[in-house]
Amino acid sequence: MSDATGSTGLGARIARRIRAEGPLSVAAFMAMALHDPEYGYYRHQYPIGRDGDFITAPEISQIFGELIGLWCADLWRRMGAPDPVTIVELGPGRGVLLADFLRAAGTVPEFRRAMRLYLVEASPVLRVAQAECLAAAAPVFVADLDAVPEGSLLLVANEFFDALPVRQFVRCRNQWAERLVAVDEGGRFVFVDGRESALATALVPAALRDSPAGTIAEICPSSAALAGGIASRLVRHEGAALLIDYGHGVATPGATLAAVRLHRAADVLEDPGMADLSVHVDFAAIAVAAVAAGAQAYGPMPQGRFLTALGADARLAALCAGAPRDRRDRLERGLTRLIDPREMGTLFKALALVSPGLPAPAGFEAGL
Prior knowledge:
8-stranded mixed beta sheet
């Protein structure tokens, strides 16, 4: 562990808060590390790409964004081709997914003309990249989903839910207790256990409550709230949301909170604001929240199977036809990375949230 002040002012700011208020929840620590208005990771870092801290599916293969664009075009037709239709991406990265999405959507000109593009992005650094990449589409930047106008909606969130703050709980002798972040005598950030209580126990998923002592469970209230908000929109107006992320389909024990810096694992508590923090997404909890708000949920389905069902292999063949050998190799390596179970094909999953009454969207017809 590092000194609490770390190498930035954020460590000192968090330490002062802890000394004034007491230990912070893991969610509060994570929120400050990522979103502090002055020092937060997403306020000043350029996280994506080979020169950043991590790389995402759209950066690996153009096929990813193209298939999502065609998936949305198909749904738009099933919805009766509303004009206008609001296209929203949560956390659009560098804009690469939507650039590929829009190119594929251009094959359905009436869909492309009906689109109104809204980007939910907190990072000023990434907004600059998105504005440049997507200038021709005239995107509108908003702070959150509440700022998106009402109406027919098609929403995409790729690796967005994994960055939402989680609370952690640890199984003690009789009950559960919340795991907290404190400052030790040496000025370092450390994990400590709060007091075990019936309230903490009630917050842990029922399937995990009888776990052995020492077990850690994570919950993400903001994830459930966002899923409920999306679902409420889908009840009011026809549409769908496609959520793709890494995570599990059922409640699973264990601490998944991790830090990445320059494509390598880092200490979660060291130098807050300097590394990306993320967790494995609980797709079951998202689906439960969405269904409770009135939407239909399909999945989660392994990413590899989902992309294959949408025609990833056929798209690869079309792109490779007549292409130079080095380009064919890059295209093949990229798609393999996305669909191979040993790489991103199984850990990453797709979940669709759909307005009540709409049919199962493409790729989910088997009732998964």
